[in-house]
Amino acid sequence: MVKISAVVIAFNEEEYIGKCLESLKEVADEIIVVDSYSTDSTPDICRSFNVKFIQHHFEGYAEQKNFATSLATYPVVLSLDADEVLSEELKISILKVKEDFRFDGYYFNRRNNYCGKWMKHSRLYPDRQLRLFNAGKGKWVGPNPHDSFVLNKGCKSSRVKGDLLHWNYKSIEEHVDKINRFSTIAAEEYFKAGRKAGCFTAHFHLVWNFFRSFILSRGFLDGYFGYTFCMITAHGSFLKYAKLRRLWLLKKQSGRHKSNERGS
Predict the structure, then answer these.
(1) Which of 20, 60, 175, 210 counts the most CB atoms within 10 A of its CB?
(2) What would the mean pLDDT of 118-129 be, rounded to a whole number?
(3) Residue 142: band (very low, low, confident or very high) from pLDDT cuts 50, 70, 90
(4) 87-to-5, 104, 128, 160, 250 alpha-carbon distances in Å
(5) How many whole angstroms separate alpha carbon 32 and alpha carbon 40?
């Protein structure tokens, strides 16, 4: 039977971190929490579970998770966010995998809670996540804030039964606030990578994102909150590309000013 190192990254997660750690106790042989210097009771709650608690400045989602993974004692790592909890069925599946760890990574279905409702569609389910893996067979990558663990070429993966429960957004206000912050982060990451956005890029992504989520992924079956989630998320896609275009316009404007200064 393989041993599992569970790693969790956290920042001001006093509302959920206890549930997260409690769900890991039955399946993990060690639990490591990397905290980005929380100012609430998150550190105290973590220490009450007798976990390995490390504080580390946040440098990005993928960077923070790679750092947390590097601290694991065992090669097999189970990675969770502080607002995620293993369902009972998923715990059973992980215990079975421990007895016969034959793949390099295992995917879970993640079920998201939006404004108190467990969503079944709207691209919020099954929302497959690779969270149990051989740490030496891949790494966390992706532009912030969209990180994912990617296995090396040639590695094999499988999926296990049971849901990873995720408290996504507890209110519409929280969703709007995070969409605004995350779209800024994403736009800056795209700008650094040299990606550009035309006059209508933001509008196209708004329409396409809503159509994909609400129609193709049947978000309409989640009722009012399905519509609300799809609409706000589509607006977030619009903001990301609108902010990206704004960054390029500012750079172009700055270049003109420098050119005028040299010519004067």
Answers:
(1) 20
(2) 92
(3) confident
(4) 18, 22, 15, 12, 47
(5) 19
The predicted-structure confidence for 152-169, as pLDDT tens digits, reads as follows: 999 999 999 999 999 989
Among residues 13, 69, 85, the alpha carbon closest in space to that of 43 is found at 13
The number of residues making up the chain comes to: 264
* 144 exposure class (CB count in 10 Å sphere: 0-12, 13-18, 19+): middle
- Other Cβ atoms less than 10 A from the Cβ of 262: the count is 7
Q: Would you state the CATH architecture of domain 4-168?
A: Alpha-Beta Complex (3.90)
Write down the domain spans for the chain. Answer: 4-168, 172-263
Label residue 258 by pLDDT band (50, 70, 90): low
In angstroms, the CA 119 to CA 10 distance is: 24
Nearest C-alpha neighbor of 182 from the set 232, 140, 145, 212: 145
Q: Which amino acid is at 201?
A: T
CA-derived radius of gyration, the chain: 21
State the burial class of residue 178 (Cβ atoms within 10 Å of its Cβ: 0-12, 13-18, 19+).
Answer: middle
Q: Which residues does residue 186 pair with via DSSP β-bridges, in sequence order? A: none
Residues linked to residue 80 through DSSP beta bridges, in sequence order: 8
User: Which residue type occupies 118?
Assistant: W
